[in-house]
Amino acid sequence: MVNSNNVDLCIFVTSAVPDVFINAIGYCLEHHSISNVLLISITKDKGQKSSEEDKLRQIRDSIFRQLTLLQAGKYEYKNKEKATAVRDIEISPHHRMRYANIGHLPISTKVYIYSELETEIELLLQKKEHRYLFDVSAILKAYLVDVFALLLARRVVDIYAFELRLRDRFYDERDLIHNLSLDTGDYEYVNITQSQYVAGLTFETKKQLQLKEQSHQALETLIDNISTKFAKRTMLLYGISVLFIWTLMARSILLADWNKIEPWTFVFFGLPTLPYVGSVFFQLGFQKCFSLRPELMFEWLRTWRRNSVLRTIALK
Q1: Where in the chain does DSSP place strands (E)?
Q2: Cα–Cα distance between 132 and 129 in angstroms, integer?
């Protein structure tokens, strides 16, 4: 069961600029009450996983550093020489407190190997006590389709992108969330699963299709086994009943006075044919066909039981 108090924001990271992540985290904290942030990086090179982990930690540190500076009315940026510099900015106490609240959130990091991406996402989503929001604002286009498809195939509908709607981009503190307004359309946090052409769309991965096919085959085998056992048991009871009637008839003949039963011999000697005649009428009544093959009773019983099980499953 998902705990509404455990909402995690998972951000797929490629850019080293902290501002885009601060904007997404700030929005989700205020509108979705997130309690944790996970920065995710994807690499195809297993040998570079350690280096990617170092980069992620540096990005996390840059986010916290920028948040600390913003609370003090300062902003870190790259100057014309591409060197890191800090300058004073105008920021109200209210917005400083907003950045302080963002800074209190725990931020963890994780590197996914591209060839293991599906498995990693499955493991993440297995934590049923958490609700996850996925942010793809800064993901590489090469990975966007893969991540989107894997998440949507698992019925994940909380996939977002932070979109700036400014006429001009500044690439500095003017693009941060405290200088933006939803009311004036400066930005929008878009759920990309709710577009006209994606909403209601579902598809499955090859792995999911294989698992579904295996489950279908296992269910078919189970239903066939149940149906066959039912038909065998019913025919066994039928055979036992016939054998009992024959035994009882034979015993009655042996113990009875021949002079008394002689007028009824046509009845006694006709009784052994009753099971055969009964099977003919059984097929006429239930199968709506005339057949002189009693063994078809077995197939009818098996088919009837199979259809009964299928109807029960459909109702559930």
Answers
A1: 7-12, 36-43, 74-78, 84-88, 107-113, 131-135, 159-164, 187-191
A2: 10
CA 263 to chain CA centroid, nearest Å: 76
Going 70 to 74 to 76 to 77, the CA torsion angle's sign is positive
Give the chain's radius of gyration (CA, Å).
37
Between CA 42 and CA 188 the distance in angstroms is: 25
Nearest to 188 by CA among 213, 170, 164, 207: 164
Average the pLDDT over each of 130-134, 169-173, 259-263 and give the range with the smallest value: 259-263
Q: Return the residue matching tokens 């951000």.
A: 11
* Gap between the Cα atoms of 286 and 282, Å rounded: 6
pLDDT value at residue 142? 86
The burial class, CB within 10 Å (0-12 / 13-18 / 19+), for 237 is exposed
| Lookup: tokens for 114 | 């591209």
Residue 8's CB: how many other CB atoms inside 10 A? Answer: 19
Q: Is 312 left (phi over 0), alpha (psi -120 to 50) or beta?
A: alpha
254-282 tens-digit pLDDT? 666 656 666 666 555 555 555 555 665 66
